[in-house]
Design a protein that fits this description.
Layout: E1 4-6, H1 10-29, H2 32-54, E2 59-61, E3 65-70, E4 73-78, E5 84-89, E6 94-99, E7 104-108, H3 109-112, H4 116-132
Helix pairs in contact: 1-2
Length: 133
Amino acid sequence: MDTLVVAVPPARVRVLLGLAGALALVTVGADPAGRLLAVPAAVAALALAVRDLRSGPVLRADRTGVEVLQGLRRVRAEWGRVRRIQVVRDRRAELLELDLGDGLVLLSRHRLGRLPADVLADLLSVRAAAERS
């Protein structure tokens, strides 16, 4: 495999948009204190949905390195800077951990839209292909 692209899961965007809509409806019938809580939450959910729609893939890997969407910015690291790629498990969650040298990136199954172990296998395949070429 030469290139890996993990897109934002469409279900994530639908859930965020639905949450923003539900919170907007709550603000209509809420008292002032309820509005104070619901409006910022609705705006945050809408902002996350728009970011996911506009930002492109969550993870991209090719022969030059790996690029991850983290918050509102993209973090890029060449394969030589990537110290460790592994799946971290605890009782409740399984996360893909990328040690990019100057920072640690954790990606959940919900963020990836796939099992972290499957993404790990694909990432290692891309990295191996990059090392061969």
